[in-house]
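Q: Given only this backbone (124 positions), what sequence would you predict?
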């Protein structure tokens, strides 16, 4: 059997709000949820499970590879929602996107404070 990424749990302050944020931004459909998880499924079948752990949430970094058209639409939604965004992970180039690795990229924070990256070309 080959190795592939199956799922991860993303700590959230409000799991329904976080899942809705990603569903809307990335144009994803509803997914079955259960127990303490509100789930979304990416196009490749990877499951993102949002939960509200009883701990202080530490920022994590999540990067999503999207096609050029979805990037354009998602970036427009970030601007429309007045969400701060940056061209760089150090958050120095505010209000910009980058053109690294032959594509486009942008960094921003999700509703729970995680650093999110959208890119249109893989790094490798």
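A: Predicted residues:
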């Amino acid at each position: 059997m080959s190795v592939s990424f199956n799922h991860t749990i993303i700590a959230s302050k409000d799991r329904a709000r976080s899942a809705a944020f990603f569903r809307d931004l990335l144009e994803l459909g509803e997914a079955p949820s259960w127990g303490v998880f509100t789930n979304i499924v990416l196009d490749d079948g990877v499951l993102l499970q949002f939960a509200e752990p009883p701990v202080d949430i530490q920022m994590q970094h999540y990067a999503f590879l999207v096609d050029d058209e979805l990037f354009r639409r998602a970036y427009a939604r970030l601007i429309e929602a007045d969400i701060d965004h940056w061209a760089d992970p150090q958050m120095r180039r505010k209000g910009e996107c980058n053109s690294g690795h032959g594509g486009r990229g942008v960094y921003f924070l999700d509703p729970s404070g995680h650093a999110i990256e959208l890119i249109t070309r893989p790094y490798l």
